[in-house]
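Quick one, probably user error.
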């Protein structure tokens, strides 16, 4: 049976993601580049800001100096809308904003504002359907109970979605992980046409998480495919079954559950035969760099074809050590 990946990729709406070691300036030389995501400490160098260039605040553990590139088969145009930088093309819209988080300031208001600005921009640009979002939250586990910064972040994001009339069925596949520094960094891909969102039968959908996880639940879907179904985005996936964390503090156990979750999600979306190839491009977030070797070994055995970047960042639940996400070309 011919693999679906052998289909011609001439569709001008298709976006390709890859990992590279090339310097950002060199990559940005091409007007087909949609985004360069740097895995390095965030800087607040506003000077020569290129909307396509995002410094995530997540250091790479392996490969050293790796970055992610998104390319379009067609040239893109760039611009700014207040605090939001955007990149527009036939692929849709890439939008990003970075908000300084001063010490002691409530993250709910900062994230509500940041998400509101992003939702205003995607609406103004005619691409209100969000396919995929990444949230990098400084000191994500600081604070106790409902005051934990991740829970405050969720509250603000929820309020922005609510005021912009995004109901649960429109939440995109997303990631929320801790970064270093003092900047909330958000970037997303959006389109004029809706994508398809999926849930994982092994997991309670995040918007339905019980109250114990915070005053407002996280607003995301487990996976989203682009309208034509050419790309499937798997959201940040961790060792959670139902709504409970499994194997707290135990990396090996968490890796096994995380891969089981991804496998089940791929099977649900693609069917068992197409699912077994796994993901094409992967990010592995690790709370502790000492887990790098074990995480690499596990990925190489469970998804040998995946190209992976291992990043140093805190997971949104304090008991979790690892989170994995990725893109699957269809
Ligand atoms: C989970 O499954 C783990 O708040 O946007 C994963 C992906 C997680 C996205 C988010 C949170 C988010 O609940 C955490």
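Nope, works fine. Designed sequence:
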């Amino acid at each position: 049976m011919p693999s679906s990946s052998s289909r011609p990729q001439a569709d001008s709406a298709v976006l390709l993601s890859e990992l590279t070691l090339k310097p950002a300036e060199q990559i940005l030389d091409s007007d087909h580049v949609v985004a360069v995501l740097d895995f390095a400490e965030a800087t607040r160098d506003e000077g020569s800001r290129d909307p396509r260039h995002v410094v995530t605040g997540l250091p790479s553990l392996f490969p050293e100096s790796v970055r992610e590139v998104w390319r379009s088969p067609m040239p893109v145009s760039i611009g700014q809308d207040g605090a939001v930088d955007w990149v527009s093309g036939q692929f849709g819209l890439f939008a990003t904003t970075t908000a300084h988080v001063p010490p002691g300031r409530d993250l709910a208001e900062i994230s509500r504002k940041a998400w509101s600005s992003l939702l205003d921009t995607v609406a103004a640009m005619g691409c209100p359907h969000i396919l995929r979002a990444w949230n990098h939250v400084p000191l994500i586990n600081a604070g106790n109970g409902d005051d934990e910064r991740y829970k405050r972040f969720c509250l603000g994001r929820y309020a922005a979605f609510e005021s912009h009339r995004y109901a649960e069925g429109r939440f995109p596949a997303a990631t929320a992980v801790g970064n270093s520094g003092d900047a909330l960094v958000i970037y997303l891909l959006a389109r004029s046409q809706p994508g398809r969102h999926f849930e994982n039968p092994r997991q309670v959908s995040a918007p339905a998480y019980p109250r114990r996880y915070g005053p407002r639940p996280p607003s995301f879907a487990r996976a989203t495919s682009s309208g034509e179904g050419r790309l499937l985005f798997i959201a940040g996936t961790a060792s959670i079954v139902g709504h409970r964390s499994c194997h707290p503090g135990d990396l090996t156990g968490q890796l096994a559950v995380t891969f089981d979750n991804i496998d089940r999600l791929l099977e649900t979306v693609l069917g068992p035969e197409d699912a077994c190839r796994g993901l094409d491009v992967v990010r592995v977030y690790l709370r502790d760099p000492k887990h790098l070797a074990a995480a690499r070994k596990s990925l190489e055995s469970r998804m040998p074809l995946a190209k992976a970047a291992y990043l140093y960042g805190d997971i949104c639940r304090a008991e979790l050590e690892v989170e994995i996400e990725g893109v699957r070309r269809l």
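Helices lie at 24-27, 107-124, 149-163, 251-270, 272-275, 292-302.
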